[in-house]
Design brief:
kinase; alpha+beta; protein serine/threonine kinase activity; 30% helix; serine/threonine-protein kinase; Transferase(Phosphotransferase), domain 1; globular; Phosphorylase Kinase, domain 1; 13 strands; six-stranded antiparallel beta sheet; 2 domains; 457 residues
């Protein structure tokens, strides 16, 4: 999550994130905070963090104009997740804008340690990995004490948006999509080269960099260009005064981005964010059962080998699903809230038979397939198309409508890459370096990525 919305979110990833387009009269559901021995109920506000998490161990109450750490002036809100709120702030010491992430008091400071490692200074003689610039650089980290506890915080360079919110039901121009796919893969390559598995690759966690001219704006100029922060008073259902553990107003997240179809090649500057699930397999065991990647992007070994350690191949599976979404309109597996077994059935539909030992252990199999592998009568209508047909339905059909169709030679190379990244057995998947060396990456994605870098300078 730096930046725009760099964290895990509690809504369906098939839906766009809320922006400032809310009508008055949207207070319908309830949020709550435990105070003493009773629960305080709040009127629900659409598009903001869960208000019930303003309690001991939860969010830190922040208002526009606050100064944190005697340095960071709160300018606007960029987003929130289950474990943090994220703010655009002005660093009053260096006079530049930074993203400030404020974690819940009960969260573990794992992400800060990972970003410190990825951002560590290099010896003058050391070669710089080309993907280093595609992950957030940790600028500062500190703690803030508040009514809900002690909160770890860090700052990074801000970004304008995440790919999910700008591409939902939209298409990137093909040259832009190729460049974004290559840049994301390069970011993963850098992460792996430093000994880390990202652990949560999907488009909510892929951001787009802001232009460097952003820092030229004063706060007044920023508000003139993007509008004043939009706030909504927080109220209790019983009409009583708010406790000190919650702010007086909720802030609707600011949208700094542009939508996918409006992107030019110079905008294709991705940033892989949210390292809260990252781990170093050489020194830390992360079992499959502890994988928190959303099911649509989660490697199948997490389900079928729950007691086995995850490794770099789990990122490759998730990376393939992200690349597919960047190139097309429809995700390769359902991003709706569906049972996990239904995602497994879709994987078989698209990719073919899974390993026989997994097939035998799959308890939910009978709801979707007969013993001979044929779909059950009840599932037949919902069966997903095989890979090549899925490409036609989820990618090519939509590109054809806008006159941006993928040619047959590129399609062949692309599907070959996706199939090898989505091998069921993790040991049979490509490594990230092999992905970068693949025909599609070298022949189609890399040239556009190079052009994006030239246009951005």
């Amino acid at each position: 999550m730096p930046l725009c919305i760099p964290h895990r979110i509690s809504i369906s990833v098939s839906q766009p994130l809320w922006h400032r387009n809310l009508e008055p009269g949207f207070l319908t559901r309830l949020g709550s905070t435990v105070a003493g021995n009773h629960r305080i109920e709040y009127k629900w506000i659409k598009g903001v963090e869960t208000l019930q998490n303003y309690q001991p161990g939860g969010y830190h109450p922040i208002m526009i104009g606050d100064l944190l750490h005697d340095r960071y002036h709160i300018v606007d809100k960029l987003g929130s997740g289950g474990y943090s709120t994220v703010w655009l702030t002005l660093d009053t010491h260096l006079r530049r804008y930074v993203t400030l992430k404020v974690n819940t008091a009960d969260s573990l400071p794992r992400e800060t340690a990972v970003l410190k490692h990825l951002s560590a200074s290099l010896p003058p003689s050391a070669a710089v990995h080309p993907g280093r610039a595609l992950v957030p650089v940790l600028l500062d980290d500190f703690d803030v004490q508040g009514p809900n506890g002690n909160h770890t915080c860090y700052t990074v360079t801000p970004a304008r948006c995440n790919l999910r919110e700008i591409s939902f039901s939209r298409l990137f121009p093909l040259d832009v999509a190729r460049a974004l796919a290559y840049g994301l893969t390069m970011a993963v390559a850098y992460t792996h080269s430093q000994g880390y598995v990202h652990g949560d690759i999907h488009l909510n966690n892929v951001l787009v960099k802001l232009p460097s001219s952003f820092d030229d704006l004063s706060i007044a100029q920023f508000y003139e260009k993007y509008g004043d922060p939009e706030t909504v008073p927080i109220t209790r259902c019983d009409g009583e005064p708010l406790p000190p553990c919650i702010p007086a107003k909720a802030v609707i997240p600011l949208f700094l981005g542009k939508y996918a179809e409006k992107f030019s090649i110079s905008d294709a500057q991705p940033l892989l964010a949210d390292f809260g699930e990252a781990f170093a397999p050489a020194s830390e065991i992360r079992l499959g059962q502890d994988c928190h990647t959303p099911p649509a992007f989660r490697a199948p070994e997490a389900k079928f080998e729950p007691q086995s350690p995850l490794g770099y191949p789990s990122d490759i599976w998730s990376l393939a699903t992200a690349i597919w979404e960047i190139i097309g309109m429809k995700a390769i597996f359902s991003t709706n809230i569906v049972p996990e077994d239904e995602i497994t059935a879709q994987q078989i539909d698209v990719l073919g038979p899974m390993p026989s030992d997994w097939w035998q252990r799959w308890e939910g199999r009978s709801s979707f397939f007969e013993e001979d592998g044929c779909p059950t009568e009840s599932y037949r209508e919902n069966k997903w198309a095989p890979l090549e047909e899925s490409f036609e339905v989820g990618v090519q059909k939509w590109r054809r409508k806008v006159g941006d169709e993928i040619r047959e030679d590129e399609k062949t190379a692309f599907l070959d890459l996706i199939r090898r990244m989505l091998a069921f057995r993790p040991e049979e998947r490509l490594t990230v370096d092999e992905v970068l060396e693949s025909e599609w990456m070298v022949g189609w994605a890399l040239p556009e990525y190079k052009r994006s870098q030239q246009c951005a300078t």
